[in-house]
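Technical annex, item 7. During the second reporting period the consortium partners agreed on a shared format for inverse folding records so that results from different sites could be compared directly. Each record opens with the tokenized structure and is followed by the designed sequence. A conforming record, contributed by the partner at site C, is shown below for reference.
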């Protein structure tokens, strides 16, 4: 091995014919020497690259595990370790967390200097403020938990890479995510919603959810080849999302088709005859729209789209859905100004009896599951239809509907009793 000088690196020719250079770039957390290895085809090439590394070391500009910042490591982790194994929507969320929340707070704090106190202060701050939409209050418990999970995963990888002595996330406390009280429509509300939905162009989306329990993104991603009219079932293969990306050219949003929430979300859902008829009539209406739109119609095969064939994102459809809820009386419009509040008597007008303002689209999924249990559907079957990973998930969520169901089932063994 030919030496370049003490502590300045070494160059040697390998048995495979390549040239190898080695430079001491620091020490591991155990004090062992850490080397940078360079491989090139010729001695001249490897010598030039080694000289570059040595120069950066001399100028203290060489980036390695000993001087990388926490933000710098997160960006490296996201691109190198996380991106190949996470969904695009998750990648986009992580990129937003790093750019919007972490970078402004941690600035130039080095990874090796990060400690549990600094990290705990960050979460405490985000608990009370710092929303990216500039609204009052802090981040939701769920968002804080997602942030924690991302940071925990990145620091775990840093520990495995021997860049830090321990994963300090283990010593940080974040708020527990509490399950919100589930809103389920009464049978009267459900019937009213179905009736009003029939008068709306895309009210069939509401009806379909009440009889399948699909997630909104899954419904909006449906295409006609996902419907088997002959065998009467739906194949759930995708979900639709609008993602926001940020780059040098600014902010850009686009609608994408992504894989469903989990592997269990890929599923087949049987359809009752009435639902098949609803979909058949909807297809006829859509064909009429195609004729009226002519060449302007962009036929992408979606069940639910605008008048020229373009799919809806979830936010846009939720606005449409809220109009149906208003017509049903399940929610009230929110006055925009103080004058509107006075004019509408907003301060004294009570919420309609039997309703609450939190009738989200997910309420329809909860309602389907509750009705299914009330009608005696097997929990295992319901779990598969909902796309849950385990029947216990279904039981935990919808156990409130079981008491009468259990009583009815106990009656079935009455004939076994004898004196």
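Designed sequence (site C submission):
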């Amino acid at each position: 091995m030919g030496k370049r000088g003490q502590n300045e690196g070494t160059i040697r020719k390998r048995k495979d014919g390549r040239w190898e250079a080695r430079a001491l770039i620091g020490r591991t957390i155990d004090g062992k020497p850490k080397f940078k290895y360079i491989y090139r085809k010729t001695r001249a090439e490897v010598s030039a690259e080694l000289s570059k590394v040595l120069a950066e070391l001399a100028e203290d500009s060489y980036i390695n595990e000993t001087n990388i910042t926490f933000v710098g490591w997160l960006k490296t982790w996201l691109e190198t370790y996380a991106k190949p194994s996470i969904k695009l929507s998750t990648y986009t969320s992580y990129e937003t967390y790093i750019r919007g929340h972490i970078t402004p707070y941690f600035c130039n704090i080095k990874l090796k200097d990060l400690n549990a106190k600094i990290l705990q202060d960050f979460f405490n701050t985000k608990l009370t403020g710092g929303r990216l939409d500039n609204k009052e209050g802090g981040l939701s418990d769920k968002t804080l938990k997602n942030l924690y999970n991302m940071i925990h995963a990145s620091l775990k990888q840093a520990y495995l890479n021997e860049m830090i002595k321990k994963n300090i996330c283990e010593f940080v406390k974040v708020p527990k995510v509490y399950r919100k009280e589930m809103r389920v429509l009464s049978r009267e509300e459900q019937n009213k919603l179905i009736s009003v939905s029939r008068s709306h162009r895309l009210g069939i989306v509401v009806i379909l959810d009440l009889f399948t329990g699909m997630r909104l993104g899954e419904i909006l991603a449906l295409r006609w080849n996902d419907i088997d009219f002959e065998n009467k079932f739906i194949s759930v293969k995708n979900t639709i999302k609008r993602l926001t990306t940020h780059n040098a050219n600014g902010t850009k949003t686009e609608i994408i088709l992504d894989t469903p929430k989990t592997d269990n979300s890929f599923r087949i859902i049987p359809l009752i005859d009435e639902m098949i008829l609803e979909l058949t009539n909807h297809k006829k209406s859509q064909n009429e729209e195609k004729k009226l739109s002519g060449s302007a119609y962009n036929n992408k095969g979606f069940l639910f789209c605008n008048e020229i064939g373009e799919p809806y994102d979830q936010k846009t459809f939720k606005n449409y859905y809220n109009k149906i809820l208003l017509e049903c009386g399940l929610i009230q419009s929110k006055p925009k100004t103080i004058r509107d509040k006075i004019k509408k008597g907003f301060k004294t007008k009570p919420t309609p009896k039997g309703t609450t303002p939190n009738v989200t689209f997910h309420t329809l999924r909860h309602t389907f599951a509750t009705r299914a249990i009330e009608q005696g559907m097997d929990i295992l079957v319901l779990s598969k239809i909902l796309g849950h990973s385990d029947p216990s998930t279904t039981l935990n969520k919808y156990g409130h509907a079981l008491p009468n169901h259990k009583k009815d089932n106990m009656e079935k063994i009455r004939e076994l009793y004898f004196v």
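Confidence is low (pLDDT under 50) at residues 1-7, 341-356. The domain at 187-237+244-403 is CATH 1.10.443.10 (hpI Integrase; Chain A). All partners now use this format for quarterly exchanges.
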